[in-house]
Amino acid sequence: VGLTRLVREQRRPRPSGAAAVTAAAVLAEVRRGLRIGAPMAVQYLLIGVGVLVLVWIITPFGEEALAALTVVARLELLTSVLFLNLSGALMVFTAQNTGAGQAVRVREGVRHAVWLGVALTAVVSLLLLVGRGPIAALFSGSPETRMVTERYILITAPFFLCYTLTVVLHGWFNGIARTVVPLICTVASLGVVRLPLSYVLGHAWGVDGIMWATVIGWAVGLGCTLLAGRPAVTAPRAGPDGEAGPVARPDGR
Question: Whole-angstrom Cα distance, residue 127 to residue 26?
Answer without folding.
Answer: 50
